[in-house]
Structure to design on (126 residues):
């Protein structure tokens, strides 16, 4: 069975960065900042074992500097540290940045958002 890439990344990023990571934004977003929203947005698999996930990560904070810092820390954890890592359910291979952290508008002026997209290869633990 294919591991849930969102759940695997959320567990790993939460442990590494000590901030909240989730797939769906809460109604009280302003009360829980900073936050990373992690969502698989596509990808493909080889039909046997190897999965190529495209993952979007939006970093939210009260100001642009905070959102930028969280986005850069997240990029470091994914691109520099995830390759070769293993959890109870997944083994991670190549990780690449598809779209580097960049400003993304958000309708609430009380917070700021930076977003990036990553390509992550992984397979189930044997």
């Amino acid at each position: 069975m294919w591991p849930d890439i969102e759940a695997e990344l959320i567990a790993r990023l939460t442990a590494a960065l000590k901030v909240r990571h989730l797939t769906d934004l809460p109604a009280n977003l302003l009360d829980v900042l900073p936050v990373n929203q992690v969502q698989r947005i596509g990808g493909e698999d080889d039909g046997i074992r190897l999965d190529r996930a495209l993952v979007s990560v939006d970093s939210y904070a009260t100001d642009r500097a905070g959102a930028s810092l969280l986005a850069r820390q997240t990029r470091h954890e994914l691109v520099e540290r995830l390759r070769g890592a293993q959890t109870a359910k997944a083994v991670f291979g190549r990780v690449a940045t598809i779209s580097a952290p960049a400003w993304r508008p958000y309708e609430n002026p009380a917070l700021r958002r930076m977003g990036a997209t990553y390509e992550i290869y992984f397979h189930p633990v044997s």
User: Anything to note?
Assistant: DSSP finds two helices and five strands in the chain. The chain has a mean pLDDT of 97. The beta strands are 20-22, 35-45, 51-61, 90-103, 112-124. The helical segments are 5-17, 64-81.
